């Protein structure tokens, strides 16, 4: 997995290449396909997203228009898009803060109102999806982009024990810590979707495909999704 700084440089390269593409064509560029990934904690969304981007670039990408994954560092793109200070990154978690925390922060002027930060995130995700050739992980991207015909919506799920094992391996933590991490993050994402988009993250109607990652190897999944994107772009 690339270092955060290098990943953000890729995001910047992506934006620049898309702008150049539109300018070269002299008209609004036809949107390329995009993918949103909702996931249960420990379902392996980031490794899958990275491998999927490589595969799509090998098959369908070009030097001018590379597939790019936007995950946790999506927040950095939001801050840059809207001219916000980097210190706000700590307040932009994929969760809904408690009423007390939100009230105190608003009273002290520590950060903009929570709804404003979510609105900025919403706008950046929508803009990236319209550009296409991107994989957007989490933060309600599937709901934000549901009206865009160029976007494929996926949700990754898996068995409890295998998700625990993935977290142990990925983060180098104990089984007890992995279990607690999964419970905490899954609750947080569920709150986020309910609070800001009034939707159940597990509602199958919000996705084109729900994938049990226990049933596939990474390469099989990559080829499956790659074939779907191939048909999507026709």
What is the average of the pLDDT values? 77
Shape: globular
The CATH C-level class name = Alpha Beta
The N- to C-terminal Cα distance equals 31 Å
Which fold name fills CATH's third level, the topology? Rossmann fold
Percent in strands: 5-15%
Number of helices: 9
State the major sheet: 5 strands, parallel
Read across the widest sheet, the strand sequence of neighbours is 2-3-1-4-5
Going by helix content, strand content and strand pairing, the class is: alpha/beta
Count of domains = 1
The arrangement of helices and strands along the chain is HEHEHHHEHEHHEH
Number of strands: 5
Question: Can you tag this structure with a few keywords?
Answer:
234 residues, alpha/beta, Rossmann fold, 5-stranded parallel sheet, 9 helices, 5 strands, globular
Descriptive overview:
- Helix content is 54%, strand content 10%.
- The protein is α/β, with parallel strands linked by helices.
- α3 packs across α5 and α7 (160-171) crosses α8.
Write a brief structural summary.
It is built from nine helices and five strands, in the order αβαβαααβαβααβα. With 234 residues, the protein is of the alpha/beta class. The relative contact order is 0.18.
